[in-house]
C-alpha cells in the first residue's frame, strides 16, 4: 500500500491495527521511500559504491511545470527515443559484420541479420527472442575469435614488458594524471568485452590494472584504425597513444586486431540484446535530456551536473524500466525460463511485484508515480486499487482527471463513493458551498445518509488577529468551549500555513492550555502523528487522510498568499478533516473569493 506522507502511513497502520489487520512497514510505504529502494537497489539507476548512473536531487526541478502536470507526450517521446537508440547500434553492428565476418560465419549472419535494416521499434521484443535462440552459435564464433585477439594482445604486452619491466607501473602512474574530463574515446567500446568475462574481484595490483586498461586501449584503437577513424584530440585513447609513442604497434598489426575486434564488437550487440531494453533506460534518458536541452525542447532547466536528476525524471526512468521488463516477461522466450540464470535481472524485478497494490489519496500522486505503482502489480492478477478525491488534490503534480487515469492503464474502472459518515450536516453543507466557490466537482461532494442525526454546529471565524498571543488565546477559548459542550476532550487539530508556524503556535497555545491541563504538540514535518489526548499542530500539507472531531485553520489568508494556486484545495481538505467543529482564523481578512462564506460562520460556540 502506498501513501503520500509518513503521517498518513502511521495513521493507516493504526487503523489497520484497530481492525486486527497486521500492517508492517514492509506493507505500507510512501512512494518516496519505495522509489529510492527501487532506483538504488533494484534497477541500479542511482549511484552506489558499485555502480549506478545518477544522483537524485530532491530539491531540484529540471522538468518544466507543463511536463510535471501532464507528462504523457514527453514520456512517450522518451520511450520512442530509447527504442530507436537501441536499434541504431544493432544496425551499425549489421554493417560491421558484413565487412568483417569470416566465411564460416556467413550462414549465421543470414539468420541474425534478417530484417535488421528495416527493424521498427515495435518489433524489437520479438527480434530479441529470435536472436536469443542463436546465442549458442554466436558464443562459438566469439570464442574462436577471442582466442586470436587474446593471443595478439598478450604477445604485444609481453614485448613491452620484456623491454621495460616497469612499463605497466609507469602506465598506471600516467593514468593517475588523466582527469575525469577527458572524453571517452569510443562509443562502441562497451561491446569490446563480454560482461561475464570481467574480473569478479577488483585487482589491487596497479600494474595488472594498467595492463587491463592497455588491453582495452588496443581493442578500441585497433577498431578505429581498421575503420580509418582518427581519435579525438582530447580523448583518453589519444592521451594513451601519445604516451606510448613509438611503442604503439604497427599499422598492419592494429588492422589485424581491429578486424577481429570489429567482428567481436558487432556480434556482441546481438548477444543478450534484450537486457538493454531494460538496463539501458538510464543511459537513454541522459542522451534524451541532452538532446532536448540542445534543441531547447520541453523547457528543460539544465542540471548543475549531468548526473543529477529530479523526481519527475526518476519516476519516468523507473516507469519505463518497469514497463519494458513486464513486456519482456510476457514473451514466450522469457516466460518459460524466467527462473534461469540468464534472466536474473528480470527475475529480480519480478520479485518486486505484489499480488495487490493499494493507493490512498491517489490524487496527490503524479501520473508517472501511479503508473509505476500499477506496474508493480503481479502480471497475472494486475490487482490495483486507488482511492482519492480530485477536489482534494493538494500537490501541483497530482493527477487531475479520469482521462489521465486511463493513461496509467486502460483496464482501470472508476467507481464513485459519495457517502459520508463522519461529518455533521452543518459542516457538510459548508464544504459544499466551499466546493462551489473553488469551481470544484460538486458531484463528488460527500452525501450524508438520510438517517444521520448529526446536525452539528456552525463553524466559527475570526479575522484581524495577527499577534501570536491573541491567536493562542482565541484557540484556547474555542477549545474550552468544546470541552464544556461535550464534557470530554475530543480529538483536536490546529492546521497552519507552513512548517515555520508549527512550533511557535504549539508553544504559545500550550501556555494558554496549561490551566486546564492540556498541551499542544508540534507534529513537525509530518513525521509524528501525536496522541489523541493532545491538541496537535500540523502543517496543512501533511494532514491528507487524517480525521479529527475538531479542526482549527490558522492563517487562511497567509496560505492564500503563499500558494495562490492551491490554497482553496488546502482549505477544502482542512474543512473536510473536521467531523463536528471547524474554526478559521485570518491574520488580516478573509480572501475576497471566500467573502460570501462569512454568513456561514459564528463568533463562538
From TrEMBL:
<dbReference type="GO" id="GO:0003677">
    <property type="term" value="F:DNA binding"/>
</dbReference>
<dbReference type="InterPro" id="IPR027785">
    <property type="entry name" value="UvrD-like_helicase_C"/>
</dbReference>
<dbReference type="InterPro" id="IPR027417">
    <property type="entry name" value="P-loop_NTPase"/>
</dbReference>
<keyword id="KW-0067">ATP-binding</keyword>
<dbReference type="GO" id="GO:0000725">
    <property type="term" value="P:recombinational repair"/>
</dbReference>
<dbReference type="InterPro" id="IPR000212">
    <property type="entry name" value="DNA_helicase_UvrD/REP"/>
</dbReference>
<feature type="domain" description="UvrD-like helicase C-terminal">
    <location>
        <begin position="535"/>
        <end position="584"/>
    </location>
</feature>
<dbReference type="GO" id="GO:0005524">
    <property type="term" value="F:ATP binding"/>
</dbReference>
<feature type="compositionally biased region" description="Acidic residues">
    <location>
        <begin position="182"/>
        <end position="197"/>
    </location>
</feature>
<keyword id="KW-0547">Nucleotide-binding</keyword>
<dbReference type="Pfam" id="PF13538">
    <property type="entry name" value="UvrD_C_2"/>
</dbReference>
<dbReference type="GO" id="GO:0043138">
    <property type="term" value="F:3'-5' DNA helicase activity"/>
</dbReference>
<protein>
    <recommendedName>
        <fullName>DNA 3'-5' helicase II</fullName>
    </recommendedName>
</protein>
<feature type="region of interest" description="Disordered">
    <location>
        <begin position="182"/>
        <end position="203"/>
    </location>
</feature>
Amino acid at each position: 500500500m502506498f501513501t503520500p506522507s509518513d503521517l498518513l502511513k502511521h495513521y493507516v497502520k493504526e487503523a489497520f491495527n484497530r481492525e486486527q489487520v497486521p500492517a508492517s512497514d514492509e506493507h505500507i510505504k510512501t512512494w518516496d521511500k519505495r522509489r529510492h529502494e527501487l532506483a538504488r537497489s533494484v534497477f541500479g539507476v542511482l549511484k552506489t559504491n558499485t555502480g549506478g548512473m545518477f544522483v537524485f536531487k530532491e530539491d531540484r526541478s529540471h522538468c518544466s511545470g507543463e511536463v510535471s502536470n501532464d507528462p504523457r507526450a514527453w514520456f512517450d517521446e522518451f520511450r520512442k527515443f530509447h527504442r530507436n537508440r537501441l536499434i541504431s547500434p544493432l544496425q551499425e553492428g549489421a554493417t560491421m559484420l558484413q565487412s568483417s565476418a569470416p566465411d564460416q560465419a556467413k550462414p549465421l549472419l543470414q539468420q541474425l541479420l534478417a530484417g535488421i535494416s528495416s527493424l521498427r521499434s515495435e518489433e524489437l521484443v520479438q527480434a530479441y527472442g529470435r536472436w536469443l535462440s542463436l546465442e549458442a552459435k554466436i558464443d562459438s564464433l566469439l570464442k574462436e575469435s577471442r582466442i586470436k585477439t587474446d593471443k595478439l594482445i598478450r604477445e604485444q604486452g609481453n614485448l613491452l614488458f620484456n623491454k621495460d619491466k616497469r612499463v605497466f607501473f609507469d602506465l598506471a602512474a600516467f593514468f593517475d594524471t588523466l582527469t575525469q574530463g577527458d572524453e571517452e574515446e569510443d562509443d562502441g567500446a562497451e561491446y569490446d568485452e563480454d560482461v561475464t568475462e570481467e574480473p569478479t574481484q577488483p585487482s589491487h595490483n596497479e600494474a595488472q590494472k594498467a595492463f587491463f586498461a592497455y588491453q582495452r586501449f588496443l581493442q578500441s584503437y585497433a577498431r578505429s584504425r581498421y575503420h580509418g577513424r582518427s581519435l579525438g584530440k582530447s580523448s583518453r585513447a589519444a592521451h594513451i597513444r601519445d604516451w606510448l609513442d613509438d611503442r604503439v604497434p604497427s599499422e598492419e598489426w592494429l588492422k589485424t586486431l581491429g578486424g577481429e575486434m570489429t567482428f567481436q564488437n558487432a556480434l556482441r550487440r546481438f548477444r543478450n540484446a534484450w537486457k538493454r531494453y531494460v538496463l539501458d533506460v538510464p543511459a537513454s534518458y541522459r542522451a534524451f535530456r541532452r538532446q532536448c536541452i540542445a534543441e531547447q525542447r520541453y523547457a528543460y532547466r539544465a542540471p548543475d551536473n549531468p548526473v543529477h536528476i529530479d523526481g519527475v525524471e526518476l519516476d519516468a526512468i523507473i516507469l519505463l524500466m518497469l514497463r519494458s521488463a513486464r513486456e519482456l516477461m510476457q514473451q514466450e522466450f522469457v516466460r518459460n525460463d524466467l527462473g534461469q540464470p540468464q534472466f536474473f535481472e528480470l527475475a529480480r524485478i519480478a520479485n518486486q511485484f505484489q499480488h495487490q497494490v493499494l493507493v490512498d489519496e491517489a490524487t496527490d500522486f503524479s501520473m508517472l508515480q501511479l503508473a509505476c505503482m500499477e506496474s508493480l502489480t503481479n502480471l497475472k492478477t494486475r490487482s490495483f486499487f486507488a482511492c482519492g478525491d480530485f477536489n482534494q488534490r493538494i500537490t501541483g503534480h497530482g493527477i487531475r482527471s479520469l482521462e489521465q487515469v486511463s493513461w496509467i492503464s486502460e483496464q482501470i474502472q472508476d467507481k464513485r463513493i459519495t457517502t459520508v459518515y463522519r461529518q455533521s450536516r452543518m459542516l457538510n453543507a459548508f464544504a459544499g458551498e466551499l466546493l462551489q466557490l473553488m469551481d470544484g466537482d460538486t458531484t463528488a461532494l460527500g452525501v450524508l445518509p438520510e438517517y444521520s442525526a448529526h446536525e452539528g454546529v456552525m463553524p466559527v471565524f475570526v479575522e484581524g488577529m495577527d499577534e501570536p498571543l491573541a491567536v493562542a488565546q482565541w484557540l484556547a477559548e474555542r477549545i474550552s468551549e468544546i470541552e464544556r459542550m461535550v464534557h470530554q476532550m475530543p480529538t483536536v487539530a490546529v492546521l497552519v500555513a507552513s512548517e515555520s508556524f508549527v512550533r511557535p503556535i504549539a508553544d504559545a497555545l500550550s501556555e494558554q492550555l496549561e490551566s486546564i491541563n492540556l498541551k499542544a504538540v508540534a507534529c513537525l514535518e509530518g513525521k509524528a502523528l501525536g496522541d489523541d489526548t493532545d491538541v496537535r499542530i500540523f502543517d496543512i500539507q501533511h494532514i491528507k487522510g487524517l480525521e479529527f472531531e475538531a479542526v482549527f485553520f490558522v492563517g487562511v489568508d497567509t496560505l492564500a498568499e503563499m500558494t495562490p494556486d492551491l490554497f482553496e484545495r488546502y482549505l477544502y481538505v482542512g474543512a473536510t478533516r473536521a467531523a463536528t467543529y471547524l474554526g478559521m482564523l485570518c491574520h488580516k481578512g478573509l480572501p475576497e473569493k471566500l467573502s460570501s462564506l462569512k454568513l456561514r460562520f459564528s463568533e463562538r460556540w
